[in-house]
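task queued by scheduler; priority normal; single chain, no ligands, no partner chains; default sampling; output format set to structure tokens
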Amino acid sequence: MVNDPQTLTIGAFAKAAGVNVETIRFYQRKGLLPEPERPYGRVRRYGSTDVARVRFVKSAQRLGFSLDEISHLLKLEDGTHCSEVAELAALQLTDVRAKLADLARIEAVLSRLVNECHAQRGNVSCPLIDSLHGS
């Protein structure tokens, strides 16, 4: 793949990128990944640049960016738009912090309810079920 940048079939490309073929096709439909030309009667070929792009998309998804946000990041990837990328990342960070606060609240409530359930041995009414009913 080093000397010939366009050597991979879609199956080999998907495997090299760590995704399945349908993911490749989905990214193409979404405009996240270009679809190479198909030489007459031949198979489309992909290269290391395509693999790197899919890995970029997957990395951004793991950071919580949506596909629309990733599309925007891909348009800014030339390195000259760092302040705009930082703004997008700051918004993502705010969202992550809000989710963490929600998860901490959920963890505290569930922990309390589990402890109450363990303390209510022999009682017919379950504190967790009661709380879900709004009692």
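post-processing summary
- The two ends are 63 Å apart (CA to CA).
- The mean pLDDT is 89.
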